[in-house]
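We append the chain.
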Amino acid sequence: MNEKLLSNYRSAIRVNAKGGIERNYVVAVCRGCRKPPCAPVCPIQGAIVPREGGGVIVDREICDATKCNHECVTACIIPGAIHVDIDINKAIVCRQCGTCVIFCSTGVLAMEIPVGDW
């Protein structure tokens, strides 16, 4: 979802620091599974739809996190790749659109061709 506002909470890319003095950074972002486990478990018909080529699309008009138990979050194989924004009651997941790469001021983001069968 591109919310058109600067918000770490609404970002579809989560970066978490792990460890002590020598921190490791763990990136949680949708990997674009070819058979996404999050879509079929959603109890709201049409809220999360698999995309051709991998990944999912969240239909913002249909998704309503107040009407489910966040099954998509639990089903995802990447912890933190899907999260629910409680202010707008929508699932947040990367669309693999590349906008973040274009506007990343430090140039650390890149779009990569997946290797293997996610």
Remarks:
- The radius of gyration is 15 Å.
